[in-house]
């Protein structure tokens, strides 16, 4: 089982003008460029990814997103903001 980390693109973003889909570690800007995350947002993303690896490793991909958020110590909205669909986690 492999969970994406912050170096990989999740495909969870909105396509920009040039067709580039920003990964979870960047916010789209005009012209298709990406802005780096704030320090706290990057830290939260890393916590979510670590928690997802642990939770999905223990419970499988059917585990509730609330469990991921709880283990990452973030709100469930933070999880869904970066990964709105389960296909972002498992590529399926």
Would you give an account of this structure?
The chain is mainly alpha-helical. The chain has a domain of 54 residues: Arc Repressor Mutant, subunit A (Orthogonal Bundle), CATH 1.10.10.60. 43% of the residues lie in helices and 7% in strands. The protein is built from four helices and two strands, in the order E-E-H-H-H-H. A two-stranded antiparallel ribbon has the order 1-2. Helix 1 crosses helix 2 and helix 2 packs across helix 3. About 18% of the residues have low confidence.
Based on helices, strands and strand pairing, what is the structural class? Answer: mainly alpha
Largest sheet: 2 strands, antiparallel
How are the strands of the largest sheet arranged?
1-2
CATH homologous superfamily heading of one domain: Homeodomain-like
In the CATH hierarchy, what is the architecture of one domain at level 2? Orthogonal Bundle
- What form results from the Cα inertia axes? globular
Distance between the termini: 12 Å
The total of beta strands comes to: 2
Query: What is the gyration radius calculated from CA atoms?
Result: 13 Å
Taken in chain order, the helices and strands follow as EEHHHH
Tally of contiguous helical segments: 4
Q: How much β-strand is present in the residues?
A: 5-15%
pLDDT < 50 runs, ≥5 residues: 5-21
The overall pLDDT, averaged over residues, is 75
Helix residue percentage:
40-55%
CATH topology of one domain: Arc Repressor Mutant, subunit A
What is the CATH first-level class name of one domain?
Mainly Alpha
């Amino acid at each position: 089982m492999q969970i994406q980390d912050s170096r990989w693109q999740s495909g969870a973003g909105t396509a920009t003008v040039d067709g580039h889909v920003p990964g979870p570690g960047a916010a789209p800007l005009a012209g298709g460029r990406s802005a780096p995350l704030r320090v706290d947002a990057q830290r939260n993303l890393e916590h979510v990814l670590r928690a997802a690896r642990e939770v999905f490793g223990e419970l499988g991909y059917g585990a509730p997103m609330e469990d991921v958020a709880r283990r990452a110590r973030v709100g469930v909205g933070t999880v869904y903001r970066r990964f709105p669909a389960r296909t972002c986690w498992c590529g399926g």
